[in-house]
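User: Predict the structure for this protein chain, please.
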Amino acid sequence: MLAPVLGALDFLNPEKLIDSFGLLGILLVIFAESGLLVGFFLPGDSLLFTAGLLVSQDVLDVGLPVLLVGCFLAAVAGDQVGYVFGNRVGPALFRRPDSRIFKQRYVEQSHQFFERHGAKTIVLARFVPIVRTFAPILAGVGSMPYRTFVAFNVVGGLMWAVGVTTIGFLLGETIPSIDRYLLPAIGVIVILSVLPAVLEILRQRREAAGLPVEEPVAETPAS
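Assistant: Here is the predicted structure, written as structure tokens:
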């Protein structure tokens, strides 16, 4: 009975995923998590970090430039597919019934994030699990101008895919025997990536309870 659960956990383990599928597996996961509805649960942040670290230790036999370019292209392509999907599916996404995996609250949370941050959500969402997957889809639903979306998509893909992977590589190059601390390092990355989503949920609960939410105070124009 535990076998399917343990198998799923193995699949979500970045190190085992890389060991099983190599560069192709990394690129497919990054692509899916960036813009396919089925990819929201995939370990994008920790996978990028682990891939960079394993390249620095020569465990993953891929040159760093190849890894960085591949992850960047996969991230950008995933968001492009998400945008096209949202543009074509439109409001039907908001009527999709809940299932064991898909929940309407994921769409609602992403929509509120989008409403608050506008076009720059495409960049910010790269660092927020779940929102990362739904943001490009909602951009298509809301008919964000395509050129605007592409510009923010490229910037966000560069900062996330290249940035997180490079951090993993540099830490692997700098800290001796860091592979011994791979699991704790992945744990920290997961916590940091989930933190924005947790803060967002807490903020929404405060609003629902009628509690004041801190907002920037607008400056009074000089008379």
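Residues 13-205 form one domain.
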